[in-house]
Amino acid sequence: MTGYLDDIRVDPSEIAAQEALYGPLTQSIRSLIDAAIRTEVDSEDIAGATAALTQVASLLRARQIDGSYGAQPSVTGVQRSWASPVIGVRNPIAPPLILEHEPDGRVWARFRLGAGYEGPPSLVHGGVSALILDHVLGEAVHASGHWGMTGTLTLRYRRPTPLNRPLRADARIDRVEGRKVYADGSISDERGITVEASGIFILPTGYAAAR
Ligand SMILES: CCCCCCCCCCCC(=O)SCCNC(=O)CCNC(=O)[C@H](O)C(C)(C)COP(=O)(O)OP(=O)(O)OC[C@H]1O[C@@H](n2cnc3c(N)ncnc32)[C@H](O)[C@@H]1OP(=O)(O)O
């Protein structure tokens, strides 16, 4: 939608109100995803649930934006990546991760992944780990005052990552070389690192640095 991002400058109190409104909706759908995977109710109840959900979808679609959500700015310049599949307040497929920022630039989050993120039985899908690490490393790059597209993301899956256990993601930048920012990170469970990542984030040709 032309000018959509430019036209919306939302007040912080309005952002808080929107978060209070959409957060519970998103959480309900997250719970629904888990329920859809694990339910064992009979076929009549599945048909009833399908009909009810079709109705809910048309209720929500009565008014909607044309394209994707984007990164909507607020009056304070805060970017709201609410559709992010990792941290999105409005994205039910986001676990979500609540990212913490340390003064030295490290970024981390504690989280758990349930049935919707399964790869091998009872273990986290490797692509989901990659998704999370891509985002957390990217966030560390952003927190350092740079930004860039992921050029290369290298992963080493050292041990299986368990579902339904406390997990932690960590990231930090290693160095900056011209338009390239090198970042490292990991996912850990209670026993230590399960996945290691290193990434090269590149400011695309013709773009200005963030700050
Ligand atoms: C709201 C806030 C949220 C903030 C937090 C947000 C976190 C979100 C994180 C999610 C990030 C994503 O998923 S991003 C989506 C996934 N990534 C993409 O789709 C990227 C697609 N690729 C591209 O757009 C492009 O190939 C770029 C931008 C990566 C590079 O293009 P370019 O700008 O033309 O680069 P170019 O001049 O050729 O090369 C520049 C330098 O980088 C090197 N280089 C080029 N490509 C690569 C590469 N893939 N991997 C390594 N190195 C490379 C070159 O050798 C050169 O090194 P030298 O000669 O200078 O030494």
UniProtKB/TrEMBL annotation:
<dbReference type="GO" id="GO:0006631">
    <property type="term" value="P:fatty acid metabolic process"/>
</dbReference>
<keyword id="KW-1003">Cell membrane</keyword>
<dbReference type="Pfam" id="PF03061">
    <property type="entry name" value="4HBT"/>
</dbReference>
<dbReference type="InterPro" id="IPR029069">
    <property type="entry name" value="HotDog_dom_sf"/>
</dbReference>
<feature type="domain" description="Thioesterase">
    <location>
        <begin position="124"/>
        <end position="194"/>
    </location>
</feature>
<keyword id="KW-0966">Cell projection</keyword>
<keyword id="KW-0472">Membrane</keyword>
<keyword id="KW-0378">Hydrolase</keyword>
<comment type="similarity">
    <text>Belongs to the THEM4/THEM5 thioesterase family.</text>
</comment>
<keyword id="KW-0443">Lipid metabolism</keyword>
<protein>
    <recommendedName>
        <fullName>Acyl-coenzyme A thioesterase THEM4</fullName>
        <ecNumber>3.1.2.2</ecNumber>
    </recommendedName>
</protein>
<dbReference type="InterPro" id="IPR052365">
    <property type="entry name" value="THEM4/THEM5_acyl-CoA_thioest"/>
</dbReference>
<dbReference type="GO" id="GO:0016020">
    <property type="term" value="C:membrane"/>
</dbReference>
<keyword id="KW-0053">Apoptosis</keyword>
<dbReference type="InterPro" id="IPR006683">
    <property type="entry name" value="Thioestr_dom"/>
</dbReference>
<keyword id="KW-0276">Fatty acid metabolism</keyword>
<dbReference type="GO" id="GO:0016787">
    <property type="term" value="F:hydrolase activity"/>
</dbReference>
<dbReference type="GO" id="GO:0005737">
    <property type="term" value="C:cytoplasm"/>
</dbReference>
<keyword id="KW-0963">Cytoplasm</keyword>
<keyword id="KW-0809">Transit peptide</keyword>
